[in-house]
Design brief:
Number of strands: 12
Strand content: 5-15%
Order of helices and strands: HHHEEEEHHEHHHEEEHEHEHEHHEH
Radius of gyration: 21 Å
Largest sheet: 6 strands, parallel
Number of domains: 1
Mean pLDDT: 96
């Protein structure tokens, strides 16, 4: 009898032997799924989760987060102010205005951020109140029963310190604030931390959670958007307040989702109890160097170069071969190093799926 999904996941990240490593993927751009519909993917397969189920993946999208609201709550409705050719100008409901393309998936371009001053923060701060009704579903007893019976490793989102504030303020404004108004940065981060801790204290006593997930996106191709010195001063001690509670309830795997070159941030995350790096963009991050430097302290997820899937064929084979020693060592779950872009044909992706399945079955700790 083979291992269960949860056992396979836990043993992989404990550097123990498994029958195979879990077959996860990160997801797909909408344009990718639209392209694949023209290349053979059934039209009824619409969402990331649909694709994962159709292709037989265990899937990151299929492992739903606990249905709780850590972050801005309630989410105010956005309103389209006007349309200009293929773009819409949208009010986000928090005081910000952004421009987005109508037909393609792009990051919204803010022309006015929600937080431009401390007065703006005072208006938005109540949206981080842990006592706001609805953060925990009213049918919580049903949730406890449902998630307690799942075979998959239940996960929980524990939010963001830098990423959320950067989205609300913009890179330039938050960067200046770290130097000119550090007490304000601390107040905003502490507000988020207090919210997160309050919710964790409630839900972790009721449901066994196996991994937690931070989202930051605070790095680009050359390195972090915040100096390591400021990162370690402002963020590392605050992460610890969260990870101490997670560890108290037996949550040993704490992921940070951050694109770009994260090398300078990894020591701080590990010190803070954040021990799994994702998605390991192949252009910027060498997982072998991270493992060599930090050993089994560091867990890794992602790392499959999306550019190999664009080329297809033997390029995919070589990419999997490149990652074989890491897979066999353990503590690593491979996925494409970001959402699959529309440059990847459906046939190339099917080739990747076939080869990856064979690879996972042949090579494992």
């Amino acid at each position: 009898m083979g291992l269960s999904h949860r056992e396979r996941f836990l043993r992989t990240f404990e550097f123990k032997s498994v029958d195979r490593v879990p077959n996860y993927e990160f997801g797909y751009w909408k344009e990718t799924i639209d392209r694949w519909h023209m290349e053979g993917l059934p039209i009824e397969v619409q969402s990331d989760k649909d694709v994962e189920l159709y292709l037989g993946l265990e899937g990151l999208e299929s492992i739903e987060y606990l249905p709780i609201a850590i972050g801005i709550w309630p989410n105010p409705p956005s309103i389209t102010l006007r349309r200009e050719d293929d773009k819409e100008v949208v009010a986000d409901g928090l005081g910000g205005i952004f421009v987005k393309k109508v037909y393609t998936s792009t990051i919204p371009h803010y022309i006015r951020y929600p937080i431009r001053s401390r007065e703006d923060w005072k208006r938005i701060k109540p949206f981080f109140d842990p006592k706001t009704p609805g953060r925990i579903p009213l049918n919580w007893n049903d949730i406890i029963e449902e998630y307690g019976n799942r075979d998959c490793p239940v996960r929980i989102s524990v939010g963001s310190l830098y990423g959320w504030l950067r989205n609300l303020m913009g890179v330039e404004r938050i960067s200046i604030a770290f130097y000119k108004e550090p007490d304000w940065i601390e107040e905003m981060m502490d507000t988020i931390i207090d919210l997160t801790i309050s919710i964790l204290r409630i839900v972790l006593k009721d449901i066994k959670v196996y991994w937690a997930w931070f989202w930051e996106d605070m790095a680009y191709s050359k390195g972090p958007l915040l100096s390591p010195k400021l990162f370690e001063r402002f963020m590392v001690p605050r992460y610890k307040r969260i990870t101490e509670i997670l560890h108290e309830y037996g949550v040993k795997i704490v992921v940070v989702d951050c694109d770009g070159n994260i090398d300078a941030l990894v020591p701080g995350w590990l010190e803070a109890g954040v021990n799994c790096m994702f998605p390991l963009e192949a252009r910027y991050v060498d997982p072998y160097k991270l493992r060599e430097k930090f050993g089994k302290r560091i867990l890794l997820m992602g790392g499959v170069d999306k550019r190999a899937l664009i080329v297809g064929g033997s390029a995919i084979d070589r990419e999997l071969e490149r990652l074989t020693p890491l897979l066999e060592e353990g503590g690593y779950i491979p996925t494409v190093d970001h959402r699959v872009p529309p440059d990847v044909s459906y046939q190339n992706y099917l080739h990747y799926m076939k080869k990856k399945k064979e690879w996972l079955e042949k090579h494992h700790p």
